[in-house]
Amino acid sequence: MTTTTVRRTAIYLEAKPAPHEITSAGHFYLVKRQADVVIDDQTGEVVSSVPSFTLDDQVLRGGPEDSSLPFDPLATQSFELVESGDKYGKDVFIPTPDRVILDISGVLLAAQQGKSLEQIWAAMESYLVGIGAVGYDYEFPDAFDNHLSNSNATILSVLNAVDVDVREIRDGTGAPITASFSNGFPGADNDSDPTLLGSGQTPEISASANMQSGLSILGRDDVDDVMIGTKFQDRYYGEQEALFYTATHDVVSYERLPEDMENPGKGLKVTLSFDNVLPGFTDPVMLTGVNEKEAGQEVADLLIGIEEIRLTEFADTFKVADFDRLEQDILIDAWSAKGDAGVDGRDRFDASGQDTPLYLGQGKDGASALFYDKEFSDPVGIELRDFEEIIGTQQADIIKWFGVPQTAQNPEASPFLDSGGGDDFIATDAIAAEIIAGSGDDFILQYGRESVIDLGTGEDRVVLGGAGLVTAMGSDDRIV
User: Fold this and answer.
1) pTM of the full predicted structure?
2) What is the pLDDT of residue 69?
């Protein structure tokens, strides 16, 4: 084998014992320097890389702004390594034995094809500077599943910005780099709250599609975040203190999920459940149907301090496991159905499994809202937008469905309402809708036009506000 040695820019992922964390945990940082790289002349592959330690080596790092303070801001640094908190010691050119130094240039170039290492470094530096501008509080590990805003989360987030999952980086033995310290890397490994941080004032906090396991995604206290997670089990936090307040309107978007799950063009089948933690606290919302199964079992995303869940542009189905009370409102936005899943491509809200009546009325800004009572005075806290299909319960539902999505852009997604069993009351302005009254004695107020109403069985009453077709009409039914 013949080789050629060249001096060129290289980027290293380095680690040292974490001074502000639990014993035997590691602290990540990134270094850009020149290296003597030995290249196989036939294959072009790197045989070895020998770093050239100089005063010009650059570092990207995070850490507490002042280690003497217990609740310090998370600060970031982007300048010469020898001037940083990660300098090597008295001899600035010789790393101490407890350092881990790994050339990840090849990993970065593979993830960012067509870009140079200088361009990749600039992108990472930009994201790092944005993290420092947010004003996150520095956080220490605890015994709970939570988020962890610290130095390792900073590096996880910076590498995510260039489509690299730090948890998948391997050392020279093939072992995960996160295993190089016995207690791992809190904030960046799967055993201790791997956390994706936002950058600056840009609304989107997006996990790369190259992430190979779930994350905690931590929003900002003064930004209306739009969070996009992985296809694995994630935890979303609207603000750093999301259990206590909701200062912003934060969105979790699943728009990208069908593509990530290699199921393009298909909508999701999502079920929401939640538990009251304590009165006055923000309730955790659990969503199933938004992840790949783990060991054949359904897993759920956890959402805290989130005001809106955005589904896909295809035909989604949304269910609520139980009608319990939320301390804050949450909007379920179905977007516009364009796919062929479901019934005629419609987005569906399905309450058929509930053992209590469905009370659906007017919410805020044209949305529909779920209520506990038939007087519509006690909201559940769940609002629905852009659903073309409503499936009722077997109880005596009251469904006031107004502001129904128009169908001009998608005739196959015409509104559909099945009130289920029970003696139901239905009022709607849906145009060209299909309405199934079911088996009870129903009362229907149809303010729209061109609808087809199937009265089913029972003694039904229908008030038509426009031309329509009534089918399955019995001798005891009446049209006014």
Assistant:
1) 0.92
2) 56
